[in-house]
Amino acid sequence: MVPNIKDVGGKNVLEIQQELMRVATAAQQGKLALNDIQGGTITLSNIGVIGTKDPRPILFDGQAVIGATGRTMTLPRYNAKMELVPRQVMNIRWVGDHRHLDGAALARFSNSFKTYME
């Protein structure tokens, strides 16, 4: 179950926070309404907090995209000088419905998301 915030683009930061707290409280109490989990277009699920490193999100019918983040891990990576350095790495997996968008659009979105996260 992935609850979603409706009309997030029309809300300010405080309104988003209030709705997020409402939905989180309802989820913790087992009182999510059907409306809380339906009708989303793009959903981001942070399931990495429960330990998974390679998430597998499932798209609800009618949704355009769902993304799921894995847990953040410190892994060795090479820098520009080819030296091994520790880096924070987080896997994210996107699933999209081709009735709403094509793979290239989702790849561009994913690249933009990566840039914002970094």
Describe the structure.
It comes from Durusdinium trenchii. Keywords: Acyltransferase, Transferase. Its cofactor is (R)-lipoate. Pfam families: 2-oxoacid_dh (PF00198). This protein has three helices and three strands, in the order ααβββα. Helix content is 30%, strand content 26%. The protein has a three-stranded mixed sheet with strand order 1-2-3. Strand 2 (65-78) and strand 3 (84-96) form a beta hairpin. The relative contact order is 0.14. The radius of gyration is 17 Å and the shape is globular. By secondary structure, the protein is an alpha+beta fold. The longest helix has 16 residues, at 13-28.
Name some characteristics of this structure:
single chain; 118 residues; alpha+beta; 3-stranded mixed beta sheet; 3 helices; 3 strands
> Globular, elongated, flat, extended or rod-shaped: what is the shape?
globular
Distance between the termini: 27 Å
How many beta-strand elements? 3
Low-confidence stretches: none
Estimated share of beta-strand residues:
25-35%
Could you give the order of the helices and strands? HHEEEH
Percentage of residues assigned to helices: 25-40%
Secondary-structure class: alpha+beta
Strand order of the largest sheet: 1-2-3
Report the mean per-residue pLDDT as an integer. 91
Largest sheet: 3 strands, mixed
Count up the helices. 3
CA gyration radius, whole angstroms:
17 Å
